[in-house]
Amino acid sequence: MSGDLALGPGAEFDAIRAMVARWGARATGIGDDAAILHVPRGDVIVASVDSFVEHRHFQRDWLTPREVGYRSAAAALSDLAAMAASPIALLIAINTPDSWLANLPEIADGIGEAAGAVGAHIAGGNLASASELSITTTVLGASFRPLRRNGAVDGDVVYVTGTLGGPAAALSRLRAGESPEDHWDRFAHPVPRIAEALWLADRGVMSAIDISDGLIGDVRHLAAASGVCVEIDTARVPRAADVSIELALESGEEYELVVTSPQPLDEREFRERFGIPLTMIGRVSSAGAGEVLLDGVRVVGAVSHDHFAR
Amino acid sequence: MSGDLALGPGAEFDAIRAMVARWGARATGIGDDAAILHVPRGDVIVASVDSFVEHRHFQRDWLTPREVGYRSAAAALSDLAAMAASPIALLIAINTPDSWLANLPEIADGIGEAAGAVGAHIAGGNLASASELSITTTVLGASFRPLRRNGAVDGDVVYVTGTLGGPAAALSRLRAGESPEDHWDRFAHPVPRIAEALWLADRGVMSAIDISDGLIGDVRHLAAASGVCVEIDTARVPRAADVSIELALESGEEYELVVTSPQPLDEREFRERFGIPLTMIGRVSSAGAGEVLLDGVRVVGAVSHDHFAR
Predict the structure, then answer these.
(1) What residues contact A55, with CB distance under 8 A and at least 6 apart?
(2) pTM as predicted
(3) Which of residues 209-238 of A touch B (CB under 8 A)?
């Protein structure tokens, strides 16, 4: 699409053309009022939207423009992983001040990297001026049988992918003026667990959620949706190096998955295939609908990452 | 979904719950990481995204919160009209400062009004804090054979729906400190021409575009995509009362459709059915690929509404 993009003249369209040129063959159908997407026969569409906002989710000196683009798209794709859906396409809405305009091609490179890693096309978008940068990514996927939050039942085993707390540790060090060191990559370069989710769905997992708002907060959403209690053994929760158990339990910005399964899963095979751990961290019980127990103690109050908490 | 929305506690989720409560049965599937949508067998998915940004597209004292919500969704839905797609669902990403939080239920009412008018559900969204209000709406529709911009051929007749220039006239009066009077409703309450588009597609129209960036600018996109020349008789362009021909030709914020048809269309039947005019304004020729002629004179330079024009 790049060289012959069928748009008229103008600075807005020049910026769009520059981004589409960076995407190359990964951009499809851009130039109509809307994108046309084909759905595998028998599948349902799985759709989600996520925003990444300057000054709220990141500061300009934290991330390169490419990382800003990558992270905005990768975080949105994580919602498709949580549903065990195969990505089809992204729509990218960018609101930007003039001061970011020259960085749009690098931002496009990061978006293209995230889309390419999961085989998704970039099928459309919108560009508008604004006083701060925000990137709103719509992800569209397909699934024959999506995983939902409401499938957990009494007796299920609870698993989490990866290790937790790295992104929060990186952020707290940055905000304290320190170097985030080893944890930085976990904040700047989260990996949506698409392939892992499809593997888990194939092995009979019955519910899933991504823990972008923190383990406890998101597990509580799952418990509420399923009308069950989730009991977590905190000593089992896999933590990044030098991360406290509190940070691992409560930190947002994670893009790992929590799943529930009627039968035990092969943790070794998972690690060999994906290079990250799959860890049994608890079980589902009927002790109280919508409840989360940490080592047998009921969680009360707001613990989830909450953009409007005081 | 309203009363029993399966989300955990927290101020962010309270705000989401308040909006979902206003949508009632129109909100479906909210509470999972992503929405699940069923596509009519044999249809393709048509998808688009559009943003409505405070201080750029509107000022707070111009519109009620309900109008802000209505207009953000209606403008996005216009892109489905341009493709002759039947709306299925909206995803709503709201970035908002605290000063707008109390208005979210009214904004939700306006979004629900726009969705309800075209039979679409509200299937998901995202809420984040930001320094200014922006509403990014993803629209998802289905079509057996979507209309595109690239279907115009030499000899086609060119039509436009409705009357032009009202929104621009309203905006220029507002910016001059005057009352927008009669034109205001055209700015605050645009109607996506979904039913009109389906009627036109049934009658053999082969290309379409919505003219949200202004008649000339968008017709030029169509001419470029189709590799044809579009010749417009400016005296035929239907204008709102007291609107100059220049304003009618160049004004953005229109949500009417331009279509090309191999044969003449029944303008009287259209007006009787939809209560707005359908007007033949020109023809397609081979005089120059991507060109627009106004009364035989070639249009040069940028005339389209351009968010980043200097």
Answers:
(1) A132, B130, B131
(2) 0.90
(3) 209-210, 217, 220-221, 224-225
